[in-house]
Inverse folding.
């Protein structure tokens, strides 16, 4: 695949929609939810959704923010990896269940939510929920448009 089927960053609708999505992302960035957790959640949801463009972006952004290659390599297998903190594991569990809603009748389980609530306050939990919803929206847009992966440079979108 060489180019996207739809130029999302040109025209009038695409840029306007992305401005709003990016404004929501800025609110999450400023929420107090740890940046490392945000990066892990974005990466894991992007992997689950098969979004190569977002997986490329979020793995590179995480590395640029100081994330280790070992942890990036193990995000998809976080349950079996010893390199993640309990709060990160709780956030990843909620992210997976929130991303795979169609796979489970109840969405995010009470048990997963309780584990996350032990580590994050209400503002951080609100940011986590918003982040999961937002990254799933970005994933879907990029998968549908078939934005190719591999060419992203950290900080490319500001």
């Amino acid at each position: 695949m060489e180019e996207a089927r739809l130029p999302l960053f040109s025209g009038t609708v695409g840029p306007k929609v992305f401005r709003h999505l990016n404004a929501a992302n800025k609110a999450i960035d400023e929420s107090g939810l740890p940046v490392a957790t945000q990066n892990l959640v974005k990466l894991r949801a992007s992997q689950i959704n098969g979004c190569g463009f977002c997986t490329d972006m979020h793995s590179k952004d995480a590395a640029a923010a100081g994330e280790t290659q070992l942890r990036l390599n193990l995000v998809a297998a976080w349950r079996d990896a010893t390199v993640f903190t309990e709060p990160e594991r709780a956030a990843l569990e909620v992210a997976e269940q929130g991303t795979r809603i169609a796979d489970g009748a109840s969405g995010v389980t009470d048990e997963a939510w309780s584990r996350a609530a032990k580590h994050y306050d209400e503002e951080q939990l609100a940011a986590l929920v918003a982040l999961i919803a937002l990254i799933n929206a970005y994933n879907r847009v990029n998968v549908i448009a078939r934005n190719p992966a591999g060419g992203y440079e950290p900080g490319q979108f500001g």
Observations:
- The longest helix spans residues 122-145.
